[in-house]
Amino acid sequence: MPWIDACATSDIEEEDLIRFDHGDRTYAIYHSPDGDFFCTDGKCTHEDVHLENGLVMEYEIECPKHNATFDYRTGEALRAPACVNLNTYKVKVEGDRVMIEV
């Protein structure tokens, strides 16, 4: 699996996310309150809605459409209507760049 340069660490505020499109896939990259970075699929598993405008609190992302909630560290669906987990992707930081393995 190749590592892709997704963004700068400064592009994402703590407890926030950005959308990253690569090929035909959309990803969401998160900056956790403890300074780590995480990556999941960029669309909710409930109705394929982009998560980029969702609310990030602590280690959770809330879908902006129906309020499904996921733990972005594990992808686990925490609140209905979502019942399918998000896929997660490995992340590493090199210098000031966030790299994801896709």
From TrEMBL:
**Limits of the Rieske domain:** 4-100
Alphabetized GO MF terms: 2 iron, 2 sulfur cluster binding; dioxygenase activity; metal ion binding
- Annotated SUPFAM superfamilies: ISP domain (SSF50022)
Q: Which UniProt keywords apply?
A: 2Fe-2S, Dioxygenase, Iron, Iron-sulfur, Metal-binding, Oxidoreductase
InterPro entries assigned to the protein according to its UniProt record, in alphabetical order: MocE_2FeS, Rieske_2Fe-2S, Rieske_2Fe-2S_sf
Protein's name in the database: 3-phenylpropionate/trans-cinnamate dioxygenase ferredoxin subunit
From what organism does this protein derive?
A: Thalassococcus halodurans
